Recover the amino acids of this structure.
């Protein structure tokens, strides 16, 4: 691969790792609220979280591009506060990826929290364990497979992003040119040899990662259920 392709691979892995890490911090409280709340606004919040699943990526990318523009709202505030543009930057890609990959992390966790019983939590509360202690000692061990799956889905989904990252970041080598955009450039230039290398590497990496994840989950199930 060329130096540009290697840089795109590194940028993509960096984006996927940062996005997944942030989502694993933000998603559990949201998923817990969605699984336990009876608030009348919960259907609206659920719909907003799931919107990237049904919305064309270019539509979401277009409105995020407007929001991140230096001439409007968030983008103008960011430029005035930090002195750098949000659109066509790595941070812009990161914020867009967090929003676009949010349902792939939130929904597995929400399902796990819904299916989790209350007896253990009630017993822990009677013993004086606080919310954080209950999370790390009760909730996390019981739902660990769902956390692993959520992380894998969020990471893999970010690796394959195209429409949103193209709208928000454009195609700036070393700054916003991720692997999917580099692959598109090779196909557009009819450079199928390099396109095969990038596409095959992305497919192989995603497959290996999912096989490892399913293998870990299967071994955990065998230890729990014999």
């Amino acid at each position: 691969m060329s130096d540009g392709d290697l840089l795109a691979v590194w940028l993509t892995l960096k984006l996927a790792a940062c996005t997944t890490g942030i989502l694993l911090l933000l998603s559990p409280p949201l998923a817990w609220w969605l699984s336990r709340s009876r608030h009348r606004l919960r259907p609206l919040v659920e719909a907003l979280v799931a919107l990237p699943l049904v919305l064309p990526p270019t539509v979401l990318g277009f409105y995020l591009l407007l929001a991140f523009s230096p001439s409007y709202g968030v983008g103008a505030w960011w430029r005035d506060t930090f002195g750098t543009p949000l659109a066509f930057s790595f941070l812009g890609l990161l914020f867009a990826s967090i929003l676009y990959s949010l349902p792939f992390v939130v929904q597995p966790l929400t399902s796990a929290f819904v299916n989790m019983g209350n007896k253990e939590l009630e017993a822990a509360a009677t013993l004086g364990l606080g919310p954080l202690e209950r999370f790390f000692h009760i909730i996390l061990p019981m739902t660990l497979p769902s956390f692993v799956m959520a992380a894998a889905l969020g990471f893999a989904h970010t690796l394959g992003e195209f429409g949103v990252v193209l709208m928000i970041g454009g195609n700036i080598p070393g700054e916003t040119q991720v692997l999917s955009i580099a692959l598109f450039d090779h196909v557009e230039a009819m450079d199928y040899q390099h396109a095969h290398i990038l596409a095959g590497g992305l497919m192989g990496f995603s497959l290996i990662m999912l096989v490892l994840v399913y293998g870990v989950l299967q071994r955990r199930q065998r230890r729990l259920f014999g």
In short: The chain has a mean pLDDT of 87. The chain is about 80% helix and 0% strand. The domain at 3-225 is CATH 1.10.3720.10 (MetI-like fold).
